[in-house]
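Retry 2 of 3 after timeout on previous attempt. Resubmitting structure tokens to design endpoint.
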């Protein structure tokens, strides 16, 4: 109305005043929401600056180890954050079940038989909704389960509560200390009258603990199923030293783990983890990815698609050549450390990013790890008097140098995606099904089939896992004719590739 040449009518003035009042009211409400959220976050930091997540801030700060909790049936053989979150966790599990068709199919097929009847499985994995579906599937197949977490930040507290309410002995909560971590593993293993006969491990910590504290338990353990690069490396070391006293199944190097969980899962979850923690824009950012295995390949592909400038470091000339052929610049870390905006480790090694590199990074550089263990970034070297640590968000720390330079460290150098975000459920369905079949195979194998060594899952089982997931896509496999099968020298029902075949 300000630009009108004639005076505004009373009706127009009333309308203008109404609009102005509505806008003012909207501004007040909008600003009050922002202020309330800001105050809430600051209060979280005041109450518990090292709290594992904002959602935990409403809980008391009493350690779960000091609480006496029981589920609705009076069972207290668990240690979690808050049993009252069970209903919320149950809904999370139900959502995950929709994206895990193969495990649900295994349950349905096992209604008449229990291939894990008598199995006592002790597990140490990430405790998420997806793992819960696996645990409940193992139970449906006849197994008894006791479980701890393989990562101090990846446990979903509400899911742990739902499992405890369902009768599972779970010992895990988000934000455990190192002492809590080993205490939980010990509580899983050391129970009078309960002797595990199968191990499901992720990282090798559970296996290591039993070797260290309870070596006599291996007399009754039929086998180990391990799903991580780190854990498999430990198993091969034990085997080489002649100290592996039970058969072990290397799930990590099965096709269904390598090509799906490691590659496709990381291709999606790397972006999710970085966005949730830092709100970073990827376009134009310079990123160095250390390691071009399956995890590194997934990370590089995602970042390249978002417009980032991606560098790769590698020790293996074959993986290095693949990186070059995929359009990435192969460098040494010290050549680009001053200029990059993001550093991501994916090697499974130790001390990949040491203090020397951290000192030379630019202000604001984001540092994170996509490998299983927290050994790739030398975080211990940053805990010195001259550096200041500032918690910004859950799992996000600013490490500040005396001159004011700061880097952004995510999850204190632990696994980014499961510590700071979530991972695609469908991909985890593939890995979890592979784990379940590996347990069934080792548990039911006739004596003598597997020696005290590390084995890969038979390719036929890899193909079976893949086939269970195809109906989700309404996919239809082509069947060989008898003539074609004879020509290729194959069984019509598989396996379709020799063991030396590489699914690049």
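Retry 2 succeeded. Sequence:
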């Amino acid at each position: 109305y300000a630009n009108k040449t004639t005076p505004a009518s009373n009706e127009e003035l009333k309308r203008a005043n109404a609009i102005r009042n509505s806008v003012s009211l909207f501004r007040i409400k909008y600003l009050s929401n922002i202020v309330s959220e800001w105050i809430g976050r600051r209060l979280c930091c005041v109450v518990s600056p090292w709290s594992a997540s904002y959602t935990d801030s409403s809980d008391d700060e009493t350690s779960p180890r000091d609480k006496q909790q029981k589920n609705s049936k009076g069972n207290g053989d668990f240690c979690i954050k808050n049993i009252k979150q069970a209903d919320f966790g149950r809904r999370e599990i139900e959502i995950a079940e929709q994206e895990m068709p193969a495990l649900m199919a295994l349950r349905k097929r096992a209604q008449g038989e229990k291939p894990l009847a008598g199995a006592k499985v002790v597990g140490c994995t990430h405790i998420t909704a997806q793992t819960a579906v696996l645990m409940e599937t193992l139970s449906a197949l006849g197994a008894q389960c006791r479980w701890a977490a393989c990562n101090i930040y990846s446990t979903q507290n509400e899911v742990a509560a739902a499992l405890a309410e369902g009768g599972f002995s779970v010992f895990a909560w988000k934000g455990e200390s190192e002492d809590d971590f080993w205490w939980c593993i010990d509580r899983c293993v050391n129970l009078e009258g309960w002797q595990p006969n199968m191990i499901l491990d992720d990282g090798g910590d559970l296996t290591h603990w039993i070797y260290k504290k309870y070596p006599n338990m291996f007399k009754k353990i039929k086998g180990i199923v391990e799903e991580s690069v780190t854990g498999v490396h430990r198993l091969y070391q034990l085997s080489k030293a002649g100290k592996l006293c039970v058969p072990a199944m290397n799930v990590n190097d099965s096709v269904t783990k390598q090509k799906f969980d490691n590659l496709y899962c990381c291709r999606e979850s790397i972006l999710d983890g970085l966005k949730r923690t830092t709100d970073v824009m990827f376009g134009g950012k310079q990123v160095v990815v250390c390691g071009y295995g399956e995890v590194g390949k997934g990370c590089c592909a995602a970042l390249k698609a978002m417009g980032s400038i991606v560098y790769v470091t590698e020790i293996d000339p074959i993986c290095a050549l693949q990186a070059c052929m995929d359009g990435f610049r192969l460098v040494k870390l010290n050549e680009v450390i001053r200029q990059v905006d993001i550093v991501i480790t994916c090697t499974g090694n130790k001390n990949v990013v040491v203090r020397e590199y951290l000192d030379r990074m630019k202000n604001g550089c984001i540092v994170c790890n996509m490998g299983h263990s927290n050994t790739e970034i030398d975080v211990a070297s940053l805990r010195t008097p001259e550096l200041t640590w500032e918690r910004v968000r859950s799992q996000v720390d600013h490490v500040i140098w005396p001159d004011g330079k700061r880097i952004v460290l995510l999850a204190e150098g632990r696994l980014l995606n499961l510590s700071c975000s979530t991972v695609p459920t469908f991909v985890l369905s593939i890995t979890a099904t592979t784990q379940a079949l590996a347990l069934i195979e080792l548990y039911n194998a006739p004596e003598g089939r597997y020696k005290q060594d590390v084995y890969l899952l038979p390719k036929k089982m890899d193909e079976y896992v893949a086939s269970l997931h195809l109906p989700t896509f309404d996919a239809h496999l082509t069947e060989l004719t008898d003539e074609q099968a004879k020509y290729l020298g194959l069984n019509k029902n598989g396996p379709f590739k020799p063991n030396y075949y590489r699914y690049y």
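Attempt log closed. The chain is about 40% helix and 15% strand.
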